[in-house]
Amino acid sequence: MRTQVAIIGAGPAGLLLGQLLSRAGIDNVILERRSCAYVLSRIRAGVLEQGMVDLLREAGVSDRLDREGLVHEGVNLAFGGVLHRLDLKRLTGGSTVTVYGQTEVTQDLVEARRALGRPTVYEAEEVALHGIDTAAPRVSFRANGTQQELRCDFIAGCDGYHGVSRGAIPAGALATFERVYPFGWLGLLVDRPPAAEELVYARHERGFALCSMRSAARSRYYLQVPLEERAEDWTDEAFYDELRLRLPAEVAAALRTGPALEKSIAPLRSFVAEPMRFGRLFLAGDAAHIVPPTGAKGLNLAASDVRYLFDALREHYRDGSDAGIAAYSARALARVWKAERFSWWMTGLLHRFPGSSAFEDRMQQAELDYLVSSPAASAALAENYVGLPYHGEAGIGPLQPFRDGSGPPGR
């Protein structure tokens, strides 16, 4: 089997790249180790930056998003029992975010790919990448009991943190950076209207809480919990009781409870692998980076990676130029590290860390007070929350050696 671009992973990153490539007349095949039903069953966040919304429109998959997505012009911070609204639209000169679940984005992309008749191989087993540093890369896999091989010009690794793509890069050629947080988020999904019209990020002495939503009738709530907690040990009633304790009185009073559709605990991690390109292999989305969900950046970073990668591949096939391919990793990482910074900062600002001192507690309170009282500080949060621009980033450049002369591997 032969194609121009082999895409590993049929999550939103892989599907969005495939959709854009197909509409540009660039042949592609997607390989996915799970079933389509499994992919569509994964519950994920859904706060979309304006840039991602625009990209979905460019890809021709925005009809349902434009009908059903909830446009939010503001976001709420809660601390000291008081709710503070930040007007995102005013602070950024017109930018907003749109609430539309990642499951819905994936469903729209799956249906669009089927309509185009483009091939997706689900339940592909034993996927392995070969010759990624040559002009003739290929992917071997097993499907329907048959060993097969896909020859291609390029490979896009969109298969997530645990996928095979990043592992195909020689260890000495890759530097990784990681921060694992000492807590997780216990999330509950319920078919009830949200407790507030816009998201509420709450800092409380008992721990962080978040009131989010998937639609006007479906809510998603989160509680900061120790990593050793188990979701099955939390009854719905215990979850709602704890959530009310961490929210301002008016939000707690508006909370509508019901049986959980899904309940799970997600650990929090910051992770970056660089470079995001090795030979003819490109990493995109969670294969290259993970952010804690506090800043709502995970899905949006995958979209910006796809934007840069699509532009590079289209330039290669349409114009015969590899300038975009050469610049892909640096361009993507410039935006990735800014989003990592924002997510790390938001996480540190709003969570209770084990063993934190009274001084650190006061510093959190002081920073929150400054944040909501200073127009400049509010604007800085707002511009990051709605999403930094896709193009024109200066970048952070190559990492410099440490003072002892050492540096990360492969640099």
Q: How many whole angstroms does the radius of gyration measure?
A: 22 Å
Reported for the largest beta sheet, the result is: 8 strands, mixed
Q: What is the helix content?
A: 25-40%
- The secondary-structure class comes to alpha+beta
CATH topology assignment of the domain at 5-70 and 98-177 and 269-350: FAD/NAD(P)-binding domain
Q: β content, as a range?
A: 25-35%
The count of β-strands is 20
What's the overall average pLDDT, rounded? Answer: 93
Report strand order across the widest sheet.
Answer: 6-5-14-15-16-13-17-20
Number of helices: 12
Query: CATH H-level name of the domain at 5-70 and 98-177 and 269-350... which superfamily?
Result: FAD/NAD(P)-binding domain
Distance between the termini: 36 Å
Which word captures the global form?
Answer: globular
CATH class membership of the domain at 5-70 and 98-177 and 269-350: Alpha Beta
Please tell me the CATH architecture of the domain at 5-70 and 98-177 and 269-350 by its name: 3-Layer(bba) Sandwich
Q: Low-confidence parts, pLDDT < 50 over ≥5 residues? A: 392-411
Q: Can you characterise this structure?
A:
There is one protein chain. By secondary structure, this protein is α+β, with helices and mostly antiparallel strands. It has a domain at 5-70 and 98-177 and 269-350: FAD/NAD(P)-binding domain. Helix content is 36%, strand content 26%. The strands form 4 sheets. The chain has an 8-stranded mixed beta sheet. The protein has a 6-stranded mixed beta sheet with strand order 8-2-1-12-19-18, with helices on one face. Strand 15 and strand 16 form a beta hairpin. The radius of gyration is 22 Å and the shape is globular. Mean pLDDT is 93; it is low at 392-411.
